[in-house]
């Protein structure tokens, strides 16, 4: 008899392993330059990527430690020991004072890089919040307010980053401009749909295809109430991001080392090996979490009615429009919507989780990665007389799954290739 919870967790773990720096980064690291390796890292995987780079250059390549320097800004709780590269733990999803320090040190180090140096930039999801350098005239508090408003608006991450890039001195190619004398190699773990370089950590070393006008249009679209200083910054031509052809990119190279599609492929192998037919919905799904869940529930219910043994797999990054005052993230809300839609149908189990180990939450290392549902979930719900629709209306998925005992608690995984969602349907 299949242990569905064990299988769901093994599928999730396979997705994480396929994108972990320890197994992937070494093959992409360039040869040591004549001068220094200046390593600047940002995101949830930043410290792990920096440690992997240290092992490569110091141990495998035998680089003189004096020729390696750098700083890695990562989410609180995601730090790992390093030897030469300073690790700064910073806020996510809402930046904090450490985010300012990480960005400031990175910009200063980039400006010291010479023509003989390698500026090695290691990016992963979360870098946008871990590196904060507000545009001139915009205070840190005002930038935080913009960030919170965007996160609560339900805007897709690409739109969120469009606004962020135009209120920054490091994003939108500006880090490359600061370090333009050096050869720049950026290695990125993608956490964005379609792996768009400008969207990963808000594209600090690549041209930005969006404009100030785009950012202003998004502010209007979501009816965001912004401080006057932010409005002025979005109307100031000096805050336009770097475009293709800028001299900052003359010696710059960008490469993705892990992507959602690769992790989704790893989950497909596990599901097939377990005897499931696979319905692959793709690695780039976007949309409101509860709406996507409703669509997926229909697929699962139809498969159940047809007597199929089916695994429905998807990646991407869903969003939540916050209307209540509860706790939870897109994966938990997706799972809670599934509970509401499935109505105790036997033979269906599911997992929805963020590969970084934290789904929404308060920015703590102990935040849940997502949630698991199966027959035990429905039994607990009935025993406690829990109404999933009421919890959903209050955006309070964390409380619901804490009550049923179904929160997925993994701790920091030290990578981030977005969400993994699995629905297992068993034939009668």
TrEMBL record:
Top-level EC class: oxidoreductase
Protein EC: 1.1.1.81
Protein's UniProt keywords contain Oxidoreductase: yes
The protein's name: Hydroxypyruvate reductase
UniProt entry tagged with the keyword Metal-binding: no
Lineage top rank: taxon: Bacteria
Gene Ontology cellular component list: cytoplasm
Domain spans labelled MOFRL: 311-419
Extent of the signal sequence: none
MOFRL-associated domain mapped to chain residues: 8-234
Alphabetized Gene3D superfamilies for the sequence: Glycerate kinase, MOFRL-like N-terminal domain (3.40.50.10180), MOFRL domain (3.40.1480.10)
Alphabetic keyword roster: Oxidoreductase, Pyruvate
InterPro entries on file: GK-like_C_sf, GK_N_sf, MOFRL, MOFRL_assoc_dom, MOFRL_protein
GO molecular function annotation: glycerate kinase activity; hydroxypyruvate reductase [NAD(P)H] activity
